[in-house]
Amino acid sequence: xxxxxxxxxxxxxxxxxxxxxxxxxxxxxxxxxxxxxxxxxxxxxxxxxxxxxxxxxxxxxxxxxxxxxxxxxxxxxxxxxxxxxxxxxxxxxxxxxxxxxxxxxxxxxxxxxxxxxxxxxxxxxxxxxxxxxxxxxxxxxxxxxxxxxxxxxxxxxxxxxxxxxxxxxxxxxxxxxxxxxxxxxxxxxxxxxxxxxxxxxxxxxxxxxxxxxxxxxxxxxxxxxxxxxxxxxxxxxxxxxxxxxxxxxxxxxxxxxxxxxxxxxxxxxxxxxxxxxxxxxxxxxxxxxxxxxxxxx
Length: 297
Fold this sequence. Notes:
Low-confidence stretches: 4-9, 271-297
Structural class: alpha+beta
Mean pLDDT: 85
Helix content: 10-25%
Oligomer: single chain
CATH architecture: 4-Layer Sandwich
Distance between the termini: 35 Å
Number of domains: 1
Radius of gyration: 17 Å
Order of helices and strands: EEEEEEHHHEEEEEEEEHHHE
CATH superfamily: PPM-type phosphatase domain
Largest sheet: 8 strands, antiparallel
Number of helices: 6
CATH topology: Phosphatase 2c, domain 1
């Protein structure tokens, strides 16, 4: 779907993976440099969501993945509403992909999920993780809450740009939940020719090593092929094992028209931060209560 922003009618292109409404997109979407794919794993329903939007000239873009939680229906409603909330800012971000705009988009996602799940009765209040990137020229702004991750692939090294908000299997931070006042960590990174960004839900990071992720990206002919390769590998392993894997979603961005060079994959660097962490406190009027455990894998 080609969209137009309200300012200057700047055209942008969009691809969505919505847990309730399914896939949406357009043939004008640039699959060479932008990719988005998801598999259900062994779950009964899809609780992940994803979005990739880019300006017509590919200079600005926004990518995001969400992993909903909170019972059979609560998770998909939370992630779907958060996706809709962030999507409302897609045009503005592809017109001006700045850090403040990304913060506003995440807060919009948080409030949309809160409104959508306010009447859901569940032992675990619904909510969703999020990892998002706003790209403007050679600058990438990253924002996340929960254990969805952002990575940078450079010269064969995959670097984790986010730190999981969990202790062992206990998730202590997310958006869209009346049980938690969310903390959204943000960071800014400079991109080089040949770089790639990868955003994933924990259904990906919990199943593939950093080295395997890097190999899937480097071997792919396009960003869309890389996202599909990562998720399809997880689906294949799930079928072979007979176990119930989590939903798995990947969003990929190639900073250059050509795929990243196939440099030898080297040992990954975990949580290397070049950032100033900003803590966003959302005034929801709700008290912070005990943290609820996420789905066990």
